[in-house]
Design goal:
515 residues, alpha+beta, BirA Bifunctional Protein, domain 2, Rossmann fold, 8-stranded mixed sheet, 24 strands, globular, RNA-binding
Length: 515
RNA sequence: CGGGGAUUGGCGCAGUUGGUAGCGCGCUUGUUUUGGGAGCAAGAGGCCGUGAGUUCGAAUCUCGCAUCCCCGACCA
């Protein structure tokens, strides 16, 4: 696309000097020819990642059939390939949540408006983006209903009804569901009006154990993103301005996308007694005293898919981490009508299926080269090519998506080779992403340095006075740079002053532009 | 919500001063092919985003609306 525009410009210039109709017609023909040639260079037929990241992103998620637009503004259809990816992510995280004693359950999507309005900060934060049900048929409802933007209120309401004794604590519930937040700017997976997520809600008898749970959930995310999605994240505390509406403390998980922008991948909140007081979540302690409980909540969404796309992707399209890839190994038969080719391909498939890998054979009538490009665009970690020449030598060609390299492997060694390779790819992807993040994270002392570094596409760690005024001033003067998280390990030392106001610094925080 | 751009077979696009639509890719059938996007031959496929208006006549002109993209504002 990009090159087409350039070609057009060239021809426009020519045309202004020589405007005869016949010339413009011949030029149009050459434009078409040029277009065909240049588009072949963009193997996956998508925009260049570095030149135009936003266009690259939407091209990629649409062309790889992860999703499509829904008919209503801001909505998205998750297509089978995208949903298979989501299911793998969800199933892995679900096991981890269960190992942390979260029990799955399901609460209604419709929430009485009075519930949301019970917690002042909560309603103030969410009101502008609530979808509201006011009628059934033509009859107005006595009380309008909100489509859940999150479920603290309705779960709080129900737990208040169930909870009696301290012996029932901690109580930890999780649900996988959809929520609606009517955002003004939307992009597939990154921010959609409706999205899928999990939300964990936990209740504790005291502040200390609730705070510990909020932190443990945060570390759980850090480990999950690192080990399963190969995404190195930065964890820490959110500022007052950025914290969840109704939370005492919000911890966040931030990941660096390929263009240097930050993506909030999940949050864990210590809610203190705000919701327990709003919803009368009380229990009787061992001294027969009724006490308000302390609660936490934690959530992450289909945005994880956006993070995978923009952390690992390249100009050929997706690069999916083996642990969650819908297809881990794609087998491409070459000259598949020749005797023995499909047999060998099927033998390889069976061997790998026995090891419980997700493996498929592309038996379509397309040319091998077309299949190579297709599966590279779709981000399949490993491709095995097998043709008559290989069969003669009892071998096959194994291609790895992350490094774009190909090796010859003996057929009888394929199990071991693929097992090792999938593990290697997972680790290499994490290592590469970590290197990028570390290279592009810079510590600065002054506002000038901060601006320069952020504009170069970096995460910037800077000392800050922790006041909202400075935070907003920085945002206004820098075209949208915001605080992301204050990493726990970044300690303020004596003499550190706020990058904005010069007063003594209270925290060191990551500043970046965010999605 | 403000500014700009877009919407024409599945996809990408062309369509001149208004006269009822074309191209490339893809698709179907046949055939030869198959180691980095195959060739030939014959076909199918369009309420020109949507609703009004102007006109003898609208893909084309005017206005509204919807959706998408970019930049802001807003935003766990």
């Amino acid at each position: 696309m990009k090159t087409t525009i350039i070609v057009d410009k060239k021809n426009d210039k020519k045309n202004t000097k020589d405007e005869s109709k016949s010339n413009s017609k011949t030029n149009k023909k050459t434009v078409l020819k040029d277009k065909k040639n240049t588009e072949k260079k963009f193997v996956a037929d998508i925009a260049s990642l570095l030149e135009n990241t936003p266009k690259w992103y939407t091209d990629t998620v649409l062309k790889t059939e992860l999703c499509d637009y829904g008919p209503v503004k801001g909505t998205m259809v998750i297509r089978p390939y995208g949903f298979a990816l989501w299911e793998n992510i969800r199933n892995s995280l679900d096991k981890i949540l269960k190992s942390r004693d979260y029990q799955n359950s399901y609460f209604p999507m419709l929430i009485p408006s009075s519930f949301i309005e019970k917690e002042k900060e909560h309603v103030a934060g969410f009101a502008p983006e609530l979808a509201t049900v006011t009628h059934v048929g033509t009859e107005p409802l006595a009380e309008k209903l909100y489509v859940r933007p999150t479920s603290e209120t309705i779960i709080g309401n129900m737990i208040a009804k169930w909870l009696q004794s301290y012996k029932e604590l901690p109580m930890k519930l999780n649900q996988w569901c959809n929520v609606i937040r009517w955002e003004k700017t939307t992009r597939p997976f990154l921010r959609t009006s409706e999205f899928l997520w999990h939300e964990g809600h936990a209740v504790f008898p005291d502040s200390k154990s609730a705070k510990k749970n909020a932190l443990d959930d945060l570390y759980m995310y850090e480990k999950f993103f690192r080990e399963y999605l190969a995404i190195p994240v930065i964890i820490g505390q959110k500022s007052e301005k950025e914290k969840f509406a109704g939370a005492e403390i919000t911890y966040g998980v931030e990941a660096m996308m390929k263009d240097g922008k930050s993506l909030q991948l999940g949050t864990s909140h210590y809610l203190g007694q705000k919701f327990s007081k709003a919803f009368e979540i009380k229990f009787q302690d061992d001294k027969k005293t009724a006490r308000y409980a302390y609660t936490t909540s934690v959530g992450t969404s289909t945005r994880m898919i956006a993070a995978i796309v923009m952390t690992h992707g390249d100009d050929r399209g997706l690069v999916l981490p083996p642990r969650v890839a819908p297809i881990q190994v794609i087998i491409v038969p070459v000259a598949q009508h020749k005797p023995g080719v499909l047999n060998t391909a099927n033998n390889i498939k069976r061997t790998l299926l026995n090891l419980h890998y997700r493996v498929d054979i592309d038996e379509s009538e397309n040319m091998p080269g077309w299949k190579f490009n297709q599966w590279e665009m779709k981000g399949v970690p490993v491709r095995i090519e097998v043709g008559p020449r290989d069969i003669e030598n009892n071998e096959c060609q194994v291609f790895r998506r992350d490094l774009l390299t190909k090796e010859t492997v003996k057929l009888n060694q394929i199990e071991q080779y693929v097992t090792n390779l999938l593990e290697k790819i997972q680790l290499t992807m994490l290592r590469k992403a970590t290197e990028v993040r570390d290279q592009r994270t810079e510590e600065v002392k002054t506002f000038t340095e901060l601006c320069k570094s952020v504009n170069a596409g970096n995460f910037v760690l800077a000392p800050w006075c922790n006041c909202t005024a400075c935070e907003e001033a920085i945002k206004n003067e820098t075209n949208g740079v915001s605080t992301r998280v204050a990493p726990f390990e970044a300690k303020v030392v004596k003499g550190d002053v706020c990058v904005k106001c010069g007063k003594p610094a209270k925290v060191k925080t990551i500043f970046a532009k965010a999605y």
